[in-house]
Amino acid sequence: MPSQLITSQKPHHQILEILAAKALARGDFATAFKFSDRRCRIDPSPLAHSYVLRAEAAHNIGDKSAALTDLTSALKISPHDAAATRRMFAWATGPERNSTALNLIAHDQDVATLRKAIKALALVGGVRLASISVFDEYVVGWAAWDRDEVAELTIVSENSEITSLLVPDPFHPLSAHGVRATALHVARPSSAVPQMLSMSLQSEVFFSRRMAPNSSTKTADSAVLHSRRLLTDDRRPTVIVPVYGDYSATTACLESLLADKQAGKSYRILIVDDASPEPDLSDYVNALSKHPDVSVLTNPINLGFVGSINRALSHLPGGDIVLLNADTIVPPGFVDRLQTAAQLSDNIGTVVPLSNNGEISDFPHPNKNNTLGSRDDVKLLDRIAAACNRNVVVDTPNGTGFCLYVTRACLDAVGGLSERFQRGYLEDIDFCLRARESGFRNVCAPSVYVGHAGSRSFKSEKRSLVLRNLGVLDRRFPHFRAECAAFVASDPLRPAREAIERQLPSPSTLPALILTGPGVLRAVAQRRANRLRAEGRAPIVLDLIYQNGQLRMSFSATDDTAPQSLSFGLTTPDDLRDLRVYLKQLAPSHCEIIDPAMTPTTVTQTLAALNIPFDVWVIDGASVASALATQNTALAASVTAADRQCNETISAARNILVPCPTAEVFTMRLLRGRKPVLLELPIFPLPLRRHRSRGAKTLAIVPARSSAKAFLVIRALAVSLDDWNSDVSIIVAGSTFDDIRLMSHDNVFVTGPVEASELGDVLRAHNVGWMFTGFDGPLFGHPLIQSTMNADIPVAYTDWSMGCLNPRPSDLAIRADATSDQLCHQIVSWIERS
Q1: SS3 for 626?
Q2: DSSP 266
Q3: Whether residue 715 sits in one domain with residue 566
Q4: Highest mean pLDDT: which of 31-35, 58-62, 155-159, 378-382?
Q5: Domain of 171?
Q6: Highest averaged pLDDT of the listed ranges 21-35, 262-276, 349-363
Q7: Region 711-731: what's the mean pLDDT?
Q8: Positive or negative, the Cα torsion across 212, 214, 217, 221?
Q9: CA 721 to CA 826: how far, in whole Å?
Q10: Does residue 214 sit in the same domain as residue 131?
């Protein structure tokens, strides 16, 4: 992403807005909520606009691939951004251009642009297109087709059908040779139920749109059940399952539901066939109606999730309900246990279970879509959850409709799902928020686990639908996002997830532990974990963190598997006993310590007591050098207890590991007899080439951490370049100790936080001629430093090998003991020579 937008110049709420938009770009809606507050409405337009500007710059220098990549990112954030869509249509080819043309048809209003889009689509599949805006009293828009015929527009309500003829208008702006077009302005009949608008040529429908009710007058639903009307005196819960497509996922869901029902569970099943286009699926569903407790309701037209649920509700005279997606896998007894949770208090209105893909109730990784396992995996997790979290409920801001238990009292008070949400996203949140307004609680029952495939219904359309419906939700509940942010930050479901993780069986592959502290070393730990996972290992990162003044160790697997929520204190005997018990159960192959300076002796003693071998990495050379200085009797009186602790950890390690040749040389000068093991970490390629064009050039400075020392070095360089009267400017790819003060220099720009994987994208448009890194102490293996030093651009760096390793011919290796003035002079002279 264009990280230059995230700088300390921006007000706090604008920074949150950009971070939220970045989360939306990767489809991480939970994190988007996390970065939102009352002032922040996740307006994606600033970030999308920056991608468009960068795409324009890339296209101007002939980098078409980069331009299209940036436009794709812009459209992920803001799917209907006009500038991004028009450029994508102009620059893309093939299917991508055609899909963009359809996007223009649906959302653009510029006549010239629409004519180009229609012409492009006519070349690949003919013209049968329309775009409409729906209001309470009428529908406006346009339609275009390529047959010499009159089209028909039909509005179908529950009990009526109105058809209008669409006569081609030769003077319509979109009319052209071979294209008939007409404007639309059609009155809507009053209806308290949703309506379906469709357009057709000779009974072949080419456009359809479901429209929300435009009248508050209630009318009776005259449709009847396919098999039988449910008995009015039957108050058992009813599981409602709308089905439409995806035969394999839907049948897997219904089979798991029927397996539970055949075990004698006391609930009913109501399946809604939402005009499925798959005959095999409709036949399968109809066959299930022979089951004594299964009813099937068939929609004459496709009503979508909301319409199907509301139609089903009108056929249920009583009893609680469970809304269940057709891409779920349910465990035995899930309805009974959700019902038990709902009955723990009279004011509980909705109950949601844990799930791999439950948004607010995700397990094991919170706020992330985790991998769906097999039915046996679902059953195992559910059994453990039932044993660990019996009679536990946790209040949540809302439930989610993949599996939502709703009490009859809540349903009677709130009514059905809102028809204002388009095609199946966020209407469940709206229902839960309305339930809370009526005095009901939304809770999660962590004693139940339901598998959920997720995102099968609309796939690539999901982001567009969510963004559209999010605006509706914002207007109705403007404080909801702030509440979600507070829920994510406090994470009240963590103890329940942790209880499950403690009871999970040991993994089949022996895990490798990677122990690290916070800050820059965490990036190296993640990099090492990625390498181990690529080798078929199962790495688990152990983070040492201070919480409420006490040191704790949290466990997080580097994939979607558990553990993700476990943490142990490292202070009391009880804490250490719990840690030993879990480590013994986990049975890791070994442990790699990335940050020995932060690792307490109690941890290494615990590893030794359990016969878990551990290795120590030399990443932060300064802390290692300080610790090894304790071996010097002349300095022993001046070293700290932390240094002695680090030295003990290094001395007890099985191996000393280093990530690069420079670290190897540096470490050998300190260890006195122990030879380190070189294990080079993978390097992110930096796709930059030095520009040969004349004119101003840029020195890119890549700091790994925002220290005071790095700030002073960069400021001194800015002054030196300015005194040299050079047209060379500085771009700092990262954050510094004081971004605003640095950017007070006319020749300095600070991008803000940058990941190694996006470094090339951030620097590509800045005409970089030289790079400078590795100047803030001996830090080895960090992805930003390693990627920079391997760039195909001249690089200056501090030589921590003390002259033992020769630099590349174009590079500048600066002595580690150089003063700030000497460093600046060498870099300015180096730039001047090249």
Answers
A1: helix
A2: S
A3: no
A4: 378-382
A5: 126-220
A6: 349-363
A7: 90
A8: negative
A9: 12
A10: yes
* C-beta of residue 751 within 8 angstroms of C-beta of residue 4: yes
What is the mean pLDDT of the segment spanning 320-342? Answer: 96
Q: Are 764 and 66 in contact (CB under 8 A)?
A: yes
Distance, in Å, from the CA atom of 797 to the CA atom of 813, rounded to the nearest integer, reads 5
Domain closes at, from 421, 437, 452:
452
Tokens for 360, please give them: 């607010």
Q: How far is CA 733 from CA 371, 376, 811, in A?
A: 34, 48, 19
Do 661 and 729 lie in one domain? The reply is no
**C-alpha distances out from residue 415 to 312, 341, 348, 557, Å:** 12, 22, 16, 42
Average pLDDT for the chain: 85
Q: Hey, is 251 helix, strand or coil?
A: helix
**Three-state secondary structure call for residue 145:** strand
Whether 195 and 132 have beta carbons less than 8 Å apart is answered as no
In the chain the first and final C-alpha atoms are separated, in Å, by 31
Q: In 3D, which of 346, 352, 365, 363 has the Cα closest to residue 325?
A: 352
44 within 8 A of 21, measured Cβ to Cβ = yes
Q: Is residue 530 part of a domain?
A: yes
Regarding whether 383 and 320 lie in a shared domain, the answer is yes
The yes-or-no verdict on residue 172 having pLDDT over 90 is yes
Q: Which residues of 345-363 are buried (b: 16+ CB within 10 A; e: fewer)?
A: eeebbbbbbbbbbbbbbbb
Q: What is the DSSP string of 728-797?
A: -EEEESS--S-HHHHTTSTTEEE-----GGGHHHHHGGG-EEEEEE--SS-B-S-HHHHHHHTSBS-EEE
Between CA 479 and CA 477 the distance in angstroms is: 6
- Tens digits of residue pLDDT in 663-679: 999 999 888 778 999 99
Q: Residues 200, 244: one domain?
A: no
Of the candidates 324, 323, 269, the residue with the CA atom closest to the CA atom of residue 295: 269
pLDDT score recorded for residue 10: 40
Based on the domain organization, do 213 and 280 belong to the same domain?
no
Q: What is the 3-state secondary structure (H, E, C) of 532-559?
A: HHHCCCEEEEEEEEEECCEEEEEEEECC
Positions of E strands within 12-148: 128-134, 138-145
Residue that finishes a domain, picked among 415, 436, 452? 452
Number of domains within the chain: 4
Say if strands 394-395 and 441-449 run parallel, antiparallel, or are unpaired. antiparallel
Give the domain CATH number at 320.
3.90.550.10
Give the residue with greater pLDDT, 157 vs 648.
648
Strands (DSSP E) found in 600-728:
614-617, 656-658, 677-678, 698-702
Percent residues over pLDDT 90 in the chain:
55
Altogether, the residues listed in the chain come to a count of 834
Same domain, yes or no: 290 and 370: yes
Residue with tokens 């688990």: 540
Q: What is the pLDDT of residues 478-493, one digit of tens each?
A: 888 888 888 988 999 9
**Geometric angle at alpha carbon 696, from 693 and 700, rounded to 5°:** 100
CA distances from 501 to 165, 580, 797 (A): 63, 15, 45
- Reduce the DSSP state of residue 295 to 3 states and report it: strand
Q: Could you give phi then psi for residue 456, rounded to 5 degrees?
A: -85, -25
* Same domain membership, residue 442 and residue 391: yes
Residue 34: both structure tokens together: 């996390």
Whichever domain contains 197, its CATH number is 2.60.40
Q: Where does the pLDDT of residue 565 fall: very low under 50, low under 70, confident under 90, or very high at 90 and above?
A: very high
Beta strands in 467-510 (DSSP E): none
Tell whether 56 is covered by a domain: no
pLDDT of residue 21: 52
The C-alpha atoms of residue 451 and residue 373 are separated, in whole angstroms, by 8
**What's the Cα-to-Cα distance from 509 to each of 514, 535, 753, rounded to whole Å?**
16, 12, 36
pLDDT at residue 227 tops 70: no
Average pLDDT over residues 291-304: 87
Strand 204-211 to 238-243 pairing = unpaired
Within-domain flag for 705: yes
Q: Peptide bond preceding 682: is omega within 30 degrees of 0, i.e. cis?
A: no
In a domain, 90, yes or no: no
